[in-house]
Amino acid sequence: MSEHDNDLEYVKTSRSGDPRPDLHADCGSCFGLCCAALPFAASADFAIDKAAGEPCANLQPYYRCGVHNSLRELGFRGCTVYDCLGAGQQVSRVTFGGQDWRQAPHSAKQMFEVFPIMRQLHELLWYLTEALTFQSARSIHDDLSEALEETERLTRLDPDSILGLDVAAHRAGVNALLLRASELVRSPVLRSQKGAPGRRKPYGRGADLIGAKLRGADLRGANLRGAYLIAADLREADMRMADLIGADLRDTDLRGANLTDSIFLTQAQINSAKGDVRTKLPPGFSRPGHWL
Question: How far apart are CA 251 and CA 235, in angstroms?
């Protein structure tokens, strides 16, 4: 046990494995929506340009990727990072009742427009579900539960109703709760560190930490919401209880870093980073194949 471990006793969560397996992509139950609905541009992440609503040339007739096993080698790294959080199968099997956009072309445009909205709702479900595991946020569990139930209700609406949603307003309300939950989780850690010699300066939301040299940094309880951590060196950094919601971890070096109790982290963020067998991940997360 390190000298810092006692600080975490104040804010331990009750996470034990994956609380919502339905919030993971099930490509076998989806009509290839991420490969057809979403746009991408030729870049370090994609080898070609593709417009929204235009099926990728690699998408096979039965909604499988024809180059799935060689995506990174062929320049489609972005495809290996993306995670719809289960929105694809929800739209395909529930919202459209299993209606195939190739067999029913009239449904394609609407299905492709519904998919990114559903992705936002599923992202909120992910964060709210995690927030409800925070023992330090017990005082707002009722509010979090209500927000979760309302978000789940929205995911069950018909296509026209989903397209008519004010998603921005709903996100704003949920985000206020998530901010409060984050503060309740992180504040005991920050209080215990107040006045500690050599303590790093606090980071604000959206901090520009691109390429930052933070190897071995003590980032316990840090506010890294929306931070730009692209290509930052976070080797051996202690990131327990750090809020990583929306943080850009593309090519962030997490080798040997401790993210055991980082909050509001997603698999897509992990997939976009660099790590190794020493990187400590929260329960329920997979170690990307390119880390090995």
Answer: 12
